[in-house]
Amino acid sequence: MKKITAEFIKGFIENNEIPFVATQSKLCIPIIDRMCQKMSYGIKFDDIKTCDNLIIDGHHRYLSSLIVGFDIGQVLSNKTSGTKSVEWGIIEFDKNDWDTPSKISHLNEQDAIYNGLDVEIVKQITFGLKK
Fold it and tell me: pTM, whole model, 2 decimals?
């Protein structure tokens, strides 16, 4: 799989049509990378939440699904008066990991349960150890 970097993501955004509009101005590259790894092995995720053409919840999941060509579900949600659209081209991509090692471990356990997999397999996928 292609290495996920800010440059790669920005190039992807520039060269692809992205149907839903963001409402979050900053995203985390390591989270996107882990999700892309998992999605490329068919690991399922919760649906993203949308309202009209806006993403309300699930920006990392949505962008990751587009990058790897993974079909992610959508459920309708509500926006608030504070919900503002953000152009994909101006989103900041943080190279620092927003998740702690314990949170990553917890998410791997939850993904294993949700997908009926052994947690060790999910860990190997997450860290690019599974071929």
Answer: 0.94
